[in-house]
Amino acid sequence: VGDSSVLTCPHKEQISMLAWKITPKVGGPCSLVYRADTNMTERTNCSDNINWKFGEGPAPALEIQQVGIAQEGNYTCEEASINGIFYKTYHLTVLAPPRLSLSCDEQGSPVCQAAAGKPPAQLSWVPESSSTAEEKCHEDGTVTVLSKFTACSTNETIVSTCMVSHPTGNWSQSIAC
User: Fold this and answer.
1) Which of 46, 73, 98, 158 has the fewest CB atoms below 10 angstroms from its CB?
2) 54: number of Cβ within 10 Å
3) How far apart are CA 84 and CA 19, in angstroms?
4) What is the dihedral of CA 51, 74, 12, 35, to 10 degrees?
5) CATH code for the structural domain at 99-176
């Protein structure tokens, strides 16, 4: 989420037409067409952050600026040249890093939350805890994971560390309740 992504076609010699057909998981399809003979482009139903990227090479690439979860889906390039028609499909999966928070509840137990991550974050504790994580799914496809530190009863204050593991990175925070 928030990064830019550039998708390219397997460029062949003497391209006459290049089209991107986009089928997002959410919302309707979108298409971009480039004609090499007239150097003209056409777009249908594409959001403003999806556009052509002209540069090196015989044909433009597709650029998605500030990728959002709404851009997740299939991106198919259709390229026509003197050698035939060629296709390449990308499946874009968008990862959203969770927001980590650690606090103490009313009973003085540490509570760790990894909010709005995609996919769901994995939570663990140091020292080890027998806690179980609860997941709450959101409409945008993100998931909030909540875990409460549980330990055998003790009179001493324990410093607990919540460890968060996610494809976008790993984080930890410590607290003494």
Assistant:
1) 158
2) 13
3) 14
4) -40
5) 2.60.40.10
Structure-token match 């609860």, residue found: 134
Give the DSSP letter string of the chain.
----EEE-----SSEEEEEEEEEESSS--EEEEEETTTTEEEEES--TTEEEE--SSSS-EEEESS--GGG-EEEEEEEEETTEEEEEEEEE---BPPEEEEEE-TTS-EEEEEEEEBSPPEEEEES-----EEEEE-TTS-EEEEEE------SS--EEEEEEEETTEEEEEEEE-
- Return per-residue pLDDT of the chain as tens, 177 residues: 889 999 998 776 788 999 999 999 888 999 999 998 898 999 999 999 999 998 776 678 999 999 999 899 999 999 998 888 999 999 999 999 999 999 999 988 999 999 999 999 999 999 988 888 999 999 988 999 999 998 766 667 789 999 999 999 999 999 998
Domain 5-92, classified CATH 3.30.700.30, yes or no: no
Report CA torsion sign: 122, 123, 126, 129. negative
* Chain-centroid distance, C-alpha 102: 24
CATH 2.60.40.10 domain span(s) along the chain: 5-92, 99-176
